[in-house]
Structures are given as structure tokens and as C-alpha cells.
Amino acid sequence: MSSIFTKIIEGEIAAYKIAEDENHLAFLDAMPLVKGHTLVVPKKEVDLIFDLESEDFKNLWSFAQTVAEKLKKTYPSQRIAVAVVGLEVPHAHIHLIPINKMDDMNFKNSRLKLSDSEYKEIQNEIINS
Considering the entire predicted model, what is its pTM? Predict the structure, then answer.
């Protein structure tokens, strides 16, 4: 059975895409901790990030770095935090989260409830940064 991320990659489920290349996709988190919270995934469905082939692993992080640079331009926060948790979806992924304090990336925090127009605005800001 395909993961929800594979369904996003294949266009079966809509997402607010930020960046894409042949092997990777970055899109806004559907339940963000803060504005700009982005997920970076390999298009190849692999459950655990450390199970990626070495070259695929390096390329995923390189792609994530490019996305993080766009986030930093859009959200001049102190840091773009990185989290690899992997428990909620069985598809390797990296969370990129603009933060100003440690608590900004606490996954126990309430998630933002954004409208479609707010997501589109965030998406456009990041893409055009």
C-alpha cells in the first residue's frame, strides 16, 4: 500500500508544493507547527531515512538544503530547524521548520489551522523568494 507521501508525489492527493526535481519533492506540512513548516521527501518510497542508498541519502539532504535556503529568505527566523522523526508516515522525510526558539518545533504544540488561501500565500512567498 502506498504511503500518503507517495500519493502526493503521484498527484492522487493535493499538496502545496514548494520545490521538486526528478527524485525529490518539498511541500507544506498539512498540520504545520509554524508558517513555512515544510516536508522534504524522496520520490522513491523508502520507510526509514537511513535505509536510503548512500547517494540517494546525500542527494535528499542536498535538496533539503536548497529548500531550507528558500525558507530562510521567506522567514527570517534564527534557524531553519531539522527533524527526522519518521513515526507518523512510513516514508522517509525531513521536516524543515523556521524557528526562533526551541519550543517552535515541539511536536506536542497545537498545530496551525490554515485556510487554503493562507497555504497558497505561504506557498507563493516561498516559491518566489
Answer: 0.95
Residue 129's pLDDT band, with cuts at 50, 70 and 90, is confident
Q: Please give the domain boundaries of the chain with CATH numbers for all domains.
A: 4-120 (3.30.428.10)
Rounded to whole angstroms, the Cα distance separating 13 from 27 reads 12
pLDDT in tens, 21-36: 999 999 999 999 999 9
Nearest to 27 by CA among 57, 5, 48, 46: 5
d(CA 87, CA 108): 14
Place of cell 511536536: 107
User: What gap in Å lies between CA 49 and CA 52, rounded to an integer?
Assistant: 6
Percent helix / strand / coil, the chain, rounded to 5:
35, 20, 45
